[in-house]
Structures are given as structure tokens and as C-alpha cells.
Design brief:
Strand order of the largest sheet: 3-2-1-4-5
Mean pLDDT: 90
Length: 177
């Protein structure tokens, strides 16, 4: 399975382009702690062999800055298998991720706080599982962790190495371009 995540108001509270890195809700208390807990769950399922991808309407440099410099980012660049950070429609970027990873979109799970983005993905890519996260973000970590698409009884060595294999493949393809 592949978990595709938005960034603004999904991995952190706020909009990086408008709020700046110093004003994002991401930290040790309140709303910021909830986003940290959500990221911890993402890392946990990544370690179980789930590929983590980003699909965000954003400036790449802004998102990279948060990953590189924000002291409370739990999710790191090394945890992300592939990213599509640009201003194209998200369903188009999901198709590009599918092509890049050489995986069918029916193995994708999409998580975005924006109901309009979720609806577009449902309409254009009905085979993608679209999570409907509750407005209460404090429920997100548990909802993600208990999602049946990510539950496995037994993890194989292949599962543990899946992220590294796809990451290496992606880097090889980028170098060939």
C-alpha cells in the first residue's frame, strides 16, 4: 500500500506559504502536539512497509524548508518515497506517482484535509481509497493507525525493505533523466 499525504493542515497546522515556518502548528503542546502525534503514526506505518508519498499544492522549496528546518518535524525526507509538490490537480499527480512507482492506483490511500481535493480524487480516481478525516484532528493519529488498509499481522523482510527499494529506484530514474 501507498499512503499519499497533503502537507498544509495535514502534516502541520497552517499554510507554509502564508504563515511561514515559525508560525506552523507543530510542537509540544495543543494543536501542534496532535500533528506531531499524527506524524509519529505515519512513521510507524512506514516502518511496517507502507510507502509514504506527498501530494501537495505548494512551492517545493517551502515544503523542503519545513522538512529540513522545523525542529518538531517527525517525518523526515528519508521517510518519503516520492513527492509531487506543485500546482497541478492532485489526481493528475497521483497518476504520475502511480507511473513513477510502477504501482496501480488501487493500492493508494489518499489523506487530505480539504474536502474539495478529496472529492476530485474520488471522481477522477474512484479506485483510490480516500480517507475522510474528521474535523477533530485529535482523532487523526488513531484513525490512521487503525486503518485496515495498513494493518498487517506479520511483516516480512521484504516489507521492511520496500521503502528503500522504491527510493533507490526513484533516484536511479531521476539520474537517467
Amino acid at each position: 500500500k501507498v499512503l499519499i499525504l497533503d502537507c498544509d493542515n495535514t502534516l502541520w497546522g497552517g499554510f507554509i506559504a502564508e504563515d511561514g515556518i515559525e508560525n506552523l502548528a507543530l510542537g509540544t503542546d495543543g494543536k501542534g502536539q496532535i500533528y506531531v502525534d499524527f506524524q509519529k503514526r505515519i512513521v510507524e506505518i512506514q516502518k511496517r512497509g507502507i510507502l509514504i508519498c506527498l501530494c501537495s499544492k505548494n512551492n517545493y522549496k517551502d515544503v523542503k524548508k519545513v522538512f529540513d528546518l522545523h525542529p518538531f518535524m517527525i517525518l523526515k525526507n528519508r521517510d518519503i518515497t516520492e513527492s509531487k509538490i506543485n500546482w497541478k490537480p492532485k489526481y493528475e499527480n497521483i497518476l504520475l506517482l502511480s507511473k513513477d512507482l510502477n504501482l496501480s492506483t488501487d493500492s493508494f490511500v489518499f489523506w487530505d484535509d480539504d474536502p474539495l481535493e478529496r472529492e476530485k480524487v474520488k471522481n477522477f480516481l474512484p479506485e483510490v481509497e480516500v480517507i475522510e478525516p474528521p474535523l477533530e484532528i485529535e482523532k487523526w493519529p488513531k484513525l490512521l493507525f487503525e486503518n485496515l488498509s495498513f494493518s498487517k499481522i506479520e511483516m516480512t523482510t521484504e516489507d521492511k525493505n520496500k521503502h528503500d527499494q522504491y527510493k533507490s529506484r526513484s533516484e536511479f530514474i531521476q539520474r537517467k533523466k
